Structures are given as C-alpha cells and as structure tokens.
Amino acid sequence: MIDEKIEPILDEVVRRNPGEQEFHQAVHEVLGSLGPVLAKHPELAEAKIIQRVCEPERQIIFRVPWQDDRGEVHINRGFRVEFNSALGPYKGGLRFHPSVYLGIVKFLGFEQIFKNALTGMPIGGGKGGADFDPRDRSDDEIMRFCQSFMLELFRHLGEYTDVPAGDIGVGGREIGYLFGQYKRITNRYESGVITGKDPSWGGSLVRKEATGYGTVFFVQEALKAAGKAFDGRTCVVSGSGNVAIYAIEKVHQLGGKVVACSDSSGFVHDPDGIHLELLQQVKEVERLRISAYADRRGDSARFVPGGSIWEIPCDVALPCATQNELTRADAVALVRNGCIAVGEGANMPCTPEAVRTFAEAGVLFGPGKAANAGGVATSALEMQQNASRDSWTFERTEDRLAQIMAGIHEVCFETAEEYGRPGDYVLGANIAGFLRVARAMAAHGLV
Ligand code: NDP
Ligand code: 2IT
After folding, report:
1. pTM for this structure?
2. In which residue ranges of the chain is CATH 3.40.50.10860 found?
3. Which fold has domain 56-189?
4. Which CATH class name applies to 209-371?
5. Half-sphere exposure of 82 (CA within 13 A, CB side)
C-alpha cells in the first residue's frame, strides 16, 4: 500500500513521463518505502525533495551515426541522464542493447542515485547508453560506434562532472575505445573521467570482479545475520556476463556450488558445478552463446533453450542478467524448491510480484541497489586511485570492497529495524539511500 501523501507524487511522475514503464516501476518501488520518512521528517516534504529527486537534473539525447564494415550507414540513439549530483559527480554506467530507450536509462539512473548513496562514496547518480546491438559486430564496428558515441558525449563529461562506466554490452573493450576517443578529442589524459579501465592503463584491480563479488558479499552478510553461511549451498546464477561470471567465482571460493547460468537464448544446467575457466573462455574470450559451454563440457551439462532457469532447485538465487527477468511464477518455483536467499546482481531483475512472494515466504532478499553496489563502489575506488595517481593491490582493493558491502548491509539492516520492519532490506535500502541524498539536497537549497 502506498502512503496517501506519496500517491499524488507517483501519479504526477507517471503523467509527466508517459510510456516509461520501467522508470515508473523503479519510482514506485522507492516511493513505496518513503511514507514513514515523510512522517518523521516533515521538512523534507515541505522542500518537495521527493518530487525533485524524481526529476533528472539534465537529460541528453543524441544521434549516433556510424558505418559498418560493408560501408552501410546506421543511425542509433544515444542517451545520458544526469539524474542527481547532490553527493558527487554524476556516476553510472553505459548500456548498449537494442532495448535501450529513455525509460530504461531513467530507471537505471534513478536506482543509481540511491545505490551510490548507500556506498558512502562521494558519487551522484547518472546512466546512459544507446539502442545499439553489439551482437555479431566486429571489433572495428564496435570501435567506430564507440568513437561516434563519444564524439557527442565528451562535452558533457569530466572527472568532476560526469563519470561513466560499463553496463550491459559495455565492458573492457568498449571502455578502452571510449577513453581513447575522449583523450584524443580533449587532449587530456583525464584518467578519472571513466571507470572500468584496464589496470594496465589506469584501471583498478578488482573493478572487473566487483559487482559479482559484491553481490555475493552482501548475501553472505545477510546469511550471517540469519545464522547461516554459503558453504555447501547450491546456487543458481542467471546471465553469463560480467556480473554473473564473477558472482559464480566468489560463490565457489566461499564453498558454494553454482549449478546453472544462462544468456538470452536459454540456460545450462551443470549439476557438478559450473566450470569457470570454460565459461570465461566461451563468454569472455570467444564471445559465443552459452550453448557452446554445454557442447564443450560434455555429458555433465545440458543446454535448455528458452525455459526458466529458476525451475532448477537451489538454496540461493542470484539474478544477474537484466530487469524483470524473474517473475512471480519463478519466485513461487524457487520458494517451493526451498530457496532461502536471493541477491539481485542485476538492476531490478525481480518483478514487484516476485519480491512480494519472497517477502511473504520469509526468503532473505537483497535488492539490487544494495546487493549490486559493489561495482560502482569499486568505480569510486578507481577514481580515488586516479586522483592520487596511485594503484592498489588486489588484496587491498578487495578488502575495501568487502568492508563497503558489509557497511551497506549494516545500514540497510539497521534502518529496517529502526523503521519497525526487521529483515526488510528493501525498506532499509530505500530509506537509508534516500535520506543521504535528501539531506544533501536540503543543505544545498533550492537548486
Ligand atoms: P553483460 O553484457 O556482461 O551481460 C549481460 C548478461 O545478461 C548476458 O548473459 C546477457 O545475455 C544477459 N541478458 C541481457 N539482456 C537480456 C535479456 N533481455 N534477456 C535475457 N538475458 C539477457 O552485462 P553485465 O553483466 O554487466 O550486467 C548484468 C546486469 O547487472 C544488468 O542488469 C546491469 O545493469 C547490472 N549491473 C552491472 C554492473 C556492472 O558493473 N557491470 C554493476 C551493477 C549492476 P545475452 O548475451 O544473450 O544478451
Ligand atoms: O549499475 C551499475 O551500478 C553499473 N553499471 C556500474 C556503474 C559504475 O559507474 O561503475
């Protein structure tokens, strides 16, 4: 039930942003937690902080023309939504996927505001991307697209202004091309203008692993608070991209076993445990479909085209692919099969009905803005290293990441208790993240 003071604000967001279904969903999810905050802090209501935080500070939409290897011309649409700079420069990834439109960029940017606040690092919230499909494109085509994209975006960026990174379809290769073009246009080696760089030229160790590792660290903390652990647990991880691969690695390091992962064409079930090196070879090196993993793995693994990965019984489920990939029916199947914890490695992968199903069944549930914050937190550590012209060891950086994730768990846990809903990490994350941003916005006056 949404609070009666909040309902008109939500209605207004829907009216002013027609057709942006994912953005409406993300706003509904956050605002659904904020009723008790307004009751406790009438000054925030008076300053209309909620209305202000729902309106991006700046939205940039631009044309991205490029030529493929045969000389054919393509026109894509690029986006950067600079949502909120109360806590620091706009910070958030770029997504290249054919489904990208303003509503997806705004949902991601909105989530990013509160996620970044939860990290405790000095970063505001933003997101960008393009409706470009990188699938089956050559390296040269990817480079030309990235160069054209940056030729427009560069004027909006800067280490104190707006600092992009990767997301779906944007990994180390794309970050390299984007940085190279920014450097060429501006004639500045401004390392801190983009994160997710390779450690050999200004990137941070652990950034590549950070989102997946961080998600597992968050779930580990939640299990610990419930007197449980990862050791001996069976896990299912959806996706097989950057977040999924390193979530799988960390689960294995902690003594759990991941028995299934997926891509948009289907999933593989490997009851002996996913073979990480093979998965990396297939997905990171050769950029093949997940079915190639099952082909090479032999009899122990099978590929299931289509279908739901969440039918595979597990103790811990980590959705690490994309928004709304885990529905109510999937949640019911997970609960029926004895799942005890869910950590959102992706952004908003569970539908609202799925989240409700987990809550009703008492499943520990780590929402994305808390559970997947390790990626952006390590981006902030990369900015810190760039600013001091330093680079830290893997161990030091991973320790910082683990501390940050434990801190995020703690603030979500304690905030849920303070507001009378122990164990409700959704409420805890939304309120704790919102309050940090809201207090800074109030202090800055009406801007
Ligand atoms: P990648 O591009 O590396 O991998 C994405 C994975 O998800 C692929 O396996 C892809 O399969 C699958 N996927 C994407 N879209 C769909 C879809 N519509 N249906 C089914 N499967 C799909 O991206 P990341 O691993 O970086 O991102 C995964 C999620 O994590 C996203 O929600 C992202 O926003 C979130 N995230 C990422 C962070 C990061 O640092 N990279 C930080 C925090 C959150 P296929 O190849 O078939 O498309
Ligand atoms: O959703 C996310 O937090 C990311 N894609 C990472 C953003 C970042 O700036 O590292």
Report:
1. 0.98
2. 56-189
3. Rossmann fold (3.40.50)
4. alpha beta
5. 19
